[in-house]
Amino acid sequence: MSQILTSSQVVAHMANGQEMSVPIYQIKGSANGPKVYIQANMHGAEVQGNAVIYQLLEQLKQLDCYGDITLVPLANPIGTNQKSGEFTLGRFDPITGTNWNRGYHFNPSLPAEFAAQYPDLEQGEIVARFRQLIISDLDARLSNPYGLNTAQHLCANLQRMAFEADIVLDLHTGPISSRHLYCPEYAKERAVLFDIPHTMFIPSDFDGALDEAAFCPWWQLQLAYQAQGREIDVAIDAFTLELGSQEWLCLEEAKKDCHSVLSYLSHQKVIEPGLFSPSKMTRYACYLNDYRALYAPKSGLVEYLVPFGEEVKAGQPLARILRMDRYGHDDAVELVYAPADCIPILHFASASVNQGTELYKVFTNYFTL
Amino acid sequence: MSQILTSSQVVAHMANGQEMSVPIYQIKGSANGPKVYIQANMHGAEVQGNAVIYQLLEQLKQLDCYGDITLVPLANPIGTNQKSGEFTLGRFDPITGTNWNRGYHFNPSLPAEFAAQYPDLEQGEIVARFRQLIISDLDARLSNPYGLNTAQHLCANLQRMAFEADIVLDLHTGPISSRHLYCPEYAKERAVLFDIPHTMFIPSDFDGALDEAAFCPWWQLQLAYQAQGREIDVAIDAFTLELGSQEWLCLEEAKKDCHSVLSYLSHQKVIEPGLFSPSKMTRYACYLNDYRALYAPKSGLVEYLVPFGEEVKAGQPLARILRMDRYGHDDAVELVYAPADCIPILHFASASVNQGTELYKVFTNYFTL
Amino acid sequence: MSQILTSSQVVAHMANGQEMSVPIYQIKGSANGPKVYIQANMHGAEVQGNAVIYQLLEQLKQLDCYGDITLVPLANPIGTNQKSGEFTLGRFDPITGTNWNRGYHFNPSLPAEFAAQYPDLEQGEIVARFRQLIISDLDARLSNPYGLNTAQHLCANLQRMAFEADIVLDLHTGPISSRHLYCPEYAKERAVLFDIPHTMFIPSDFDGALDEAAFCPWWQLQLAYQAQGREIDVAIDAFTLELGSQEWLCLEEAKKDCHSVLSYLSHQKVIEPGLFSPSKMTRYACYLNDYRALYAPKSGLVEYLVPFGEEVKAGQPLARILRMDRYGHDDAVELVYAPADCIPILHFASASVNQGTELYKVFTNYFTL
Amino acid sequence: MSQILTSSQVVAHMANGQEMSVPIYQIKGSANGPKVYIQANMHGAEVQGNAVIYQLLEQLKQLDCYGDITLVPLANPIGTNQKSGEFTLGRFDPITGTNWNRGYHFNPSLPAEFAAQYPDLEQGEIVARFRQLIISDLDARLSNPYGLNTAQHLCANLQRMAFEADIVLDLHTGPISSRHLYCPEYAKERAVLFDIPHTMFIPSDFDGALDEAAFCPWWQLQLAYQAQGREIDVAIDAFTLELGSQEWLCLEEAKKDCHSVLSYLSHQKVIEPGLFSPSKMTRYACYLNDYRALYAPKSGLVEYLVPFGEEVKAGQPLARILRMDRYGHDDAVELVYAPADCIPILHFASASVNQGTELYKVFTNYFTL
What we know:
The structure is a homotetramer.
Chain A: E1 4-13, E2 19-27, E3 36-40, H1 48-60, E4 69-72, H2 77-81, E5 83-84, E6 87-88, H3 110-117, H4 123-142, H5 150-162, E7 167-174, E8 176-177, E9 179-184, E10 198-202, H6 210-227, E11 237-245, H7 251-267, E12 284-287, E13 291-295, E14 300-304, E15 317-322, E16 333-337, E17 342-347, E18 352-353, E19 358-364, E20 367-368
Parallel strand pairs in A: 3-4, 3-7, 7-11, 9-10, 10-12
Antiparallel strand pairs in A: 1-2, 2-4, 5-6, 8-17, 9-11, 12-20, 13-19, 14-15, 14-18, 15-16, 17-19
């Protein structure tokens, strides 16, 4: 019952002159519900979010949407098209090595300046004016006489759309991975609205990603008012959803993640409350500091031994490393052990590693929600 | 009961001066059985053959080997170490694009010259002298004053070892793939000795691969004598075994392929006949001309729909292509259909394709063995 | 005085759905002069040909063109946009390693079939009908139910335009390189019309490049008629011009190559004869078999010692290889010597090489034109 | 007259098991002069520093060296060997995109802790004990149970050697570049000792590079004592020397940079004072904040117009961008202008750029030394 408007936006210009654009699907809200921005595939190999946007569109067109919803699949045309051998080398700019998801903008001086200037503004006005401020700041950046780099151009175009929204969902995947969620600490209660078994709670720091770029200005605005002795709400919800493994597409599996997103949107009154509700499941969480990378202690061929989501005790094996140059010696086959009690969340995509390759990422000091 | 001798061979020299070598494991035959050469991992991402060599060594050391056996895992140190993003870009020389498995040598003039020179030599002498000839020819190539390219250097070092053998097995994998076998037509009867459900019968042409480099001189020698009115046997057996998918290692699964190789070696009297025998299974085969690549008719995100080894009728769907720039149009989700009755053997490793990317390789006009 | 018509042609479809196209500039001939097809930048890093097309357009628009002229710069949008670090990795399909300039089509059975079918057709009719035949054959290929690969798609679209022409010029560059020309042996006399000091005479074999794809059908048609005892002309002229080094653009230098092309076109009566004429210079040539690659005999850091175009005697040094892992030993600094009297034409683009990297390409057994 | 000791150090382990090592050349000082650490080629394509080390060794072996000197050419065996097409993709880890020269370690809490603990220690003792502390801290890092990533492993091995020295020189090059110097602000007076026309003065921040990793602990120690009201010297000198362009080797040109380094070492009494002295030349400098990247405002083919080192006025052209898809329009050929008075120091290595590619880096607000 919602109409879907189709448009596109140029986000990059290639050496041969070709403009690269992203498709944009928009639903006009029927009421004054929260505005939503959802994008997918910022990293070129992480395609499953596109299938989730497909299923969301299939559902949303049959629903009454109270707030405006903007959906941007295929958000990174350079990354998606960057092949190297049979896989997609879409995680970083091939020229510079810069992670595409680190090109967003945050001006750390704005929150304190704003709070100092408008100590007594009421919340609704704060939201309207501060949003205008960060949008102007982003626009000003685009007119820098020295220009912006390619990732910054791309990100600025996407961030411009995200800044209009109250809810920002960035759909990613891991390399070979379970579903997991990056959730800002202030939004803890809403982590259980998604059908995602693993959640990291992240702090208010800015490291360049879209979720941070969306919530940092508002979170730090809250902190700035707090420092002035006033409590205001963080006006924006922003999450990164990691929907399993890269280089993999499944429309059927995407229905589950679609349901998961709709449960959250239903709770947030973007669509009718109660229409979708989260599944019953054990949800594990840890703080970002406790989300640890385990680097390969030696090089070789790797057999990954532990299914995702399984609780592993310290000292239990996570992987086996085969060194066929060492057959006949004790180190031809060796195990890599968990350095702490943990839950493996993702592992490296290849069966061969250098010393120091990120072998696993694991939850430690985890707890249930 | 067999002793394993360990050595290594330098096969490449890198820009920084580093010599790159391959490990060599050798068993001295207890009797006058056929000599065997087995290598793995010529393409950098195809690691599972190393696990099979591991399991073979574990078995062979407990057996009585009648003939000399040479096993070379990690056969391509440049390819194995060539990473690009999270995957191994080991299929071709990153400088030239040359497929590493196309650098072997075949001198097409030798068979006819030899047959003309020695029309009446008895088979044993033919084998001894012709082997000497092709080895000398290979050695001569290495002293070319203009040098050889990097792939040719690497291949010449490996081929030198393979030329000493009566049986050559080159262990590969597909991208995402079922087990399949490249079998020269003259060795048809022996395809069933492997526990491999899909076999291609290949002709006597030379296209640069190790199996061809091993059997072409001998097969074309047979044809040369045939042209002179004399029948001799092809002295060499050479196969390429494709052991499933790349970027994947499993020591347990490798035991199956180890058993498969041992069944063949047992039949060929390299080890005790009857000690291992092939599993009962339906084995499909087709001729190389009927092993067809299906190229993506359009670009987009791909969901591969058919399990390997399943017989598919012409007109049935093989893949679904999602085009999220086309949502709302008929071509947003389209199926790719089998152009003929076929069995899918392998498919592309990534979930996104350009137009013209090799989507599937399939058996057509196949039959059972 | 000639009008330039602008259009474009889609030649590739990328994973994100983006269509990639080439720009096409066309001049309608004022008379019945030969038709010309000129393209540039088939290899992504070889950009200087675009500047030459720019200068040609600047000149041609002021001239009277007797025949239709089609100019296609930026002929390979995938290759041009394929970056890897600070350079353009545009020589081969990054997925397969296939050289982009090997995807053109030649059906070797057509010439003999045609000559057999039309033994007595007059030359004008031969040209018209045979051109129609090879165009139909190319079109039929595009409807192959198994599809074509990405390079073949791209090449077929370009070849379709080239097949309409009587003169085909493919503008390339070497890595670090002097100007040189690939000239079919039958067109020897016309090599001197270009201001290019080095010419290779190439035989009638087909190896996948555009110049070959353009002249092979016609040359082999000549040979087929010859085998039937009749002499006909080769109807098509096709050359590959190598315009210096890759990753380098200079509009001023492009004027020289523009003049060079105009001299040829003037001689061929595409524009007014005598309007442009070749410069006086010593022109060296050799046969393709004598155009030799010299591979690095050892790995290390390379100082290239010989200016292009200089005659080098056998035994004179071409390069110095520094091995800083060997300081203090005799092989820390070693020279690489010319294995024969030669003229260096191009050398590798990087100052570090593996053993077997193509160090130089040189003319041997050369002569002056 | 100095003896050169040769050794090597393993710094990386590759997927195939191969250990990769760096060569180490050491001279034992004849007196108690400053200890020196010089490395080259941390970025794979930046090879000229190896030639400078070659020339330094040739000189130093004839001189009396008062302090120990350690020279490490080919410092990054992974980067040096990472080819992608005809160039060396050695700037970042191909798996992660991490700049190799950002993996060094600095523990920001050590200086303040040390100064608090030893407020009154005399300078000689401070140097000895603080050096011991940062070395222990680095060693502790290597025993992290979660391991280190590949860049950190490599860097830790090099940094371990650098931490023993009083003078650290890291030899790099730009892409296509003039000679320039990164000089910490506290060492301003010594910038003129090198024959390098362009110097950036850098602040005490740590961004992961070797020069910073060498001087930051000591500089911040100075600041920590300063905060306690005491002045101590910065014990360490550390510079990054950019020696021209990458992918280029010239032993003759390296003699100039060798002389430049010897002038500095002579002044610092590593070798006999006055033995070498800096050349007379105009030396320009700016602060790091004024060293600006100019990003391509549009994509296309680039002709770089300004020779390095030339003073350019705001509004003068720096580059020309050719857009052959736009021939006939005003934007087919456009100039890129200097946004401020500046001196171009380096430009991008390729003649084609995306929008946002770093086109030039320039000095602004520069002054002469």
